[in-house]
Design goal:
The protein is α+β, with helices and mostly antiparallel strands. It has one domain: Cyclophilin-like (Cyclophilin, Beta Barrel). Helices cover 16% and strands 31% of the residues. The chain is built from 3 helices and 12 strands, in the order H-E-E-H-E-E-E-E-E-H-E-E-E-E-E. The strands form 3 sheets. An 8-stranded antiparallel beta sheet has the order 3-4-6-5-7-2-1-12. Strands 8-11 form a two-stranded antiparallel ribbon.
Length: 187
């Protein structure tokens, strides 16, 4: 009986109509980098807030197709896998953006030489935690998919090569980035 009276009051205009439901909140999205390699696919998210210059630089390189066909030319199990311009001469340099992100397994960083502001195209992904890199290199992303692929790459057979005390172990069989893309995904 009460609901019947309420319906009558609404129809008669005696009560205000209930407000319309709020529109659904659109899901938050983020851009991620997808690296399709000959050993599988890895996906990493960017630390946009903490490394905006590096993030913008890497996204531009990816969108320009720079990493397509590049190899992980440096694979040091228990340290990092590294790809980009082997000579370190391609592309503009990026000012270092040291931040509080630790270099743990899956952290993506920008390689450089002795000058902190010399990073350009060479990216690396930590195979295991590398705390000695914290605050010394720009951490600009983290692996969110493809940890198994990181493990496969880190375990390929390599030819040991050192430049001074730095290991530049090269895979015996090339590990190729077949295609690098930027995708928008829900967070």
């Amino acid at each position: 009986m009460k609901s019947l009276l309420l319906a009558f009051a609404l129809l008669a205009g005696l009560l205000p109509a209930p407000p319309p439901p709020a529109p659904p909140t659109p899901p938050k999205t983020e851009e991620v980098c997808v690296l399709k390699t000959n050993l599988g696919t890895m996906v990493f998210r960017f630390f946009e807030q903490d490394a905006p210059l590096t993030t913008a630089h890497i996204k531009k390189l990816v969108r320009d197709g720079f990493y397509d066909g590049k190899t992980f030319y440096r694979v040091v199990k228990g340290h990092v896998i590294q790809a980009g311009d082997v000579e370190g001469t391609a592309g503009p340099k990026v000012k270092a953006e040291f931040n509080s992100h630790p270099f743990v397994a899956g952290t993506v960083g920008l390689a450089r030489d002795k000058d902190p502001d010399s990073g350009s195209t060479e990216i690396f992904i930590c195979h295991v935690p590398r705390p000695h890199l914290d605050g010394q290199y720009t951490a600009f992303g983290e692996l969110i998919e493809g940890q198994d692929v990181l493990e496969k790459i880190a375990n390929v057979e390599v030819v040991e090569h050192y430049e001074g005390t730095v290991a530049f172990h090269r895979p015996k069989q090339p590990v190729v980035i077949e295609k690098a893309t930027i995708e928008t995904r829900a967070e």
